[in-house]
Amino acid sequence: MAGVALGGYIVERSLEIGDRSLLVLLNGLTAAGLYFLMASGFTLVFGLVRVTNLAHGGLYLLGGYTALSLQRMTGNWFIAAGLGAVATAGLSTVLYLVLRRVHGDGLPETMLTLGAAIVMADQALANWGGVPSDLDPPAALRGSIDLPGSILLYPKFRLSVVAMAMLAGLCLWLLLYRTRLGSTIRASVDDRDMVSILGIRVELVFCTVFALAGALAGLAGAAGGTYLSLAQGEDNRILLASLIVVIAGGLGSIGGAAVAAVVIGLVEAFAQTHHAIFSVLITFGTLIAILVLRPHGIFGSQQDERA
Amino acid sequence: MESSVHSKMSARSRALALLAAAAAAIAVVPALVSDFVLLQIAIKSLWLGIAGASLAFLIGQAGLISLAQTAVFGVSGYVMAILVLDHGWGEWFAVAVAAAAGPIAGLIVGVISRRAAGLYLMMLTLAIGVFVFFFAQQYQPITRGHTGFNGFDAPTLFGIDLNDRRPLFYVTAVVAVAVVAGFRYVMATPAGLAYRGLRDNPKRLQALGYSTEATTVSAFAVSGFAAGAGGVISVWYNGAISPGSIDLTRTIELLIVVMIGGTLRIEGAFLGALAVTLLQNYVSDFTNRTETLVGAVFMVVVLVSRQGLTGILLGLGSRAQRALGWVRSRDSTLDRSVTDDSRRSPEHASRTGQHAPSQQQARRLPCETLERDGRGEYSPP
Asked: What are the tens digits of pLDDT across the range B262-273?
């Protein structure tokens, strides 16, 4: 409720200010697209395995860098991004195989992902260096387009990030609600033991979800590496942003992640435009306010916190 | 009655023996090691350990995994630097205010996150920590932004300049001993039992009439004393504080220190700080990938034992005791819980591995029943 009200307020303020409102809106939506790509995988893993995957930012960075190297080799953005996503899916699966070795309440697993995050960040630095670099957008999406009414020129690629996120969201929805695998995943979120008793290999389901989340993070890395840049520390920044989105939306809820991605993306874009110095403080302030009012996020329920 | 008096006496004499051992170690170390080791390893791991102890207390005693301890640490450091360098305060006045800022900052963190638990707490405190980091980085008029404060001189104490290695070592070591003693004291009080109740079974703690929120807040405030002390000494040591001293990497480093050390004992934090400091200093001779190694060691420690180096050492110790035939049945529970903790809940391991509250307390405080009552997995000796 608070988030929606806040989002409403921001849209309203943006409209008042007029000429910059569309820019803020589009920047916010682009950021929201990227955050959703990250947050959806993150929240899926959390809902299923009760692991806060703090290596998710590392997967983003490595996915982006892998795509960068592949693009330099093949010259094709889509092949590079696709293979980068495959690579991070593999890495994420390996991570799951390590996490399997501890059976805890989520905390030792989270610690392990923390260790993995540090190793990943250091390896990214070792292999790709500390100089910020970025991917070239694919030829078809280069340059800007005139928005209707020619009020604003906006980069095509940024718009396509929004489209990509929406497509990913649609695919996720189809997967989760229209396939057998999806119903197994949803059932595992609700009652892992019962699904296991029914003869389904839950481990395999978990493994798939980890791979899927890794692929989404890798894809986000390629997209983010194109319209932002890849650099040291970028993994932490994006991890924090997606953490904020996931927490604000309610852990484990993909719908919540989508709504929160838009809210946080808009708040951030608004703050960056109008209060640049305090932008991050405003974003984090929003999160803290949401959590103080609703400790389990906008869409989270008390039941989500199964100990 | 007699036995409880006896156990009290032996606990006191043990504490005195430990204190004497610590004093002897403090006196001897500067004579044994080179100046480089004293500065880069000994002092560094002591102040890192002090900060770590505050987190080890929160995690090990109250079960609160906080990622905001570096923020508390940073608040104290910044308060001192701001008061001295920007407002020209007397150095020891600034130290006093900064030391008080630690528990106050801890209190605020506690109040904000008093209702969260588990992973939610972790993420809420992460948000608070990052909030403080960005405040330091972006609010230039107060914090000088990105560069932070440089060229801070440590004060003089009774005419001795604390910028010198040895005096700084002695002061840091004394503070470290005081922090450990302070935490051990708190752990032995009814409040300490309430913290363990919060860790083991908050619902029952509440049913017994304790407020979990007040317990959480006070645990954060108590831990703030040590975090603040660590922050003050780190500024003396580094001569500087900047947003980089409290960023996410430092937060993770502190957590790694505590997890490598293990949370069974407060002292584990110093062991972890020593291990991490040694790794960071000596591995860089062989490879530039120090962070990879620290991360990998951390993962291995988590995989091998959830109780870190102290858990491994305690397990080895009680195994040796059993081999020598010294052991009584009570200690063997400790040994089992420490070495076999992978199959048990972490609460159980730390519950039984705790420095055992005396029987007398068990009779006095209803909350002690928490530690006896099982969920089917508690096997009495």
From this structure: 888 888 889 889
Residue of A115, A271, A200 lying closest to B300 (CA atoms): A115
Neighboring chain A residues of B249 at a CB cutoff of 8 Å: 236
- Asked whether the beta carbons of residue A119 and residue B255 sit closer than 8 angstroms, the reply is no
Contact B152, B81 (CB under 8 A): yes
CA B199 to centroid of chain Cα atoms = 16
**A245 vs B contacts (CB less than 8 Å):** none
The helix-helix angle for A254-274 and A279-293 (nearest 10°) equals: 140
Nearest-5° angle of CA B24, CA B29, CA B33? 160
When CB atoms are compared, the residue of B122, B124, B130 closest to A291 is B124
Residues of A in contact with B292 (CB under 8 A): 118-119, 122-123, 126
Predicted confidence band of residue B316 (pLDDT cuts 50, 70, 90): confident
Q: Which residues contact A196 (CB under 8 A, 6 or more apart)?
A: A202
For A306, nearest residue in chain B (alpha carbons): B118
Both tokens assigned to B24: 């002897």
Per CB-CB distance under 8 Å, the chain A contacts of B288 are: 126
Write the pLDDT tens digit of every residue in A124-153: 988 888 788 888 888 888 878 777 665 677
Under DSSP, the state recorded for A144 is E
Question: What ipTM goes with this model?
Answer: 0.81
pLDDT of residue B326: 65
Size of interface A-B (CB pairs under 8 A): 122
Cβ-defined contact of B292 to A122 (cutoff 8 Å): yes
Name the residue type at position A229.
S
Can you state the angle between helices B290-304 and B248-261, rounded to 10 degrees? 40
Angle made by CA atoms A73, A77, A81, in degrees to the nearest 5: 95
Q: Are A102 and A112 in contact (CB under 8 A)?
A: yes
Residue carrying structure tokens 């420095």: B355
Cβ–Cβ below 8 Å for A52 and B115: no
Which residue matches tokens 């540090």? A118
Helix (H) or strand (E) holding A146: strand A144-146
The tokens describing A205, both together, are 């389901």
Here the contacts of A163-166 (C-beta below 8 Å, separation 24 or greater) are A163/A33, A164/A33, A164/A37, A164/A219, A164/A223, A165/A32, A165/A33, A165/A34, A165/A36, A165/A37, A165/A261, A166/A33
Tokens representing residue B60 in the block: 């090990």
Please give the model's pTM, rounded to 2 decimal places: 0.77
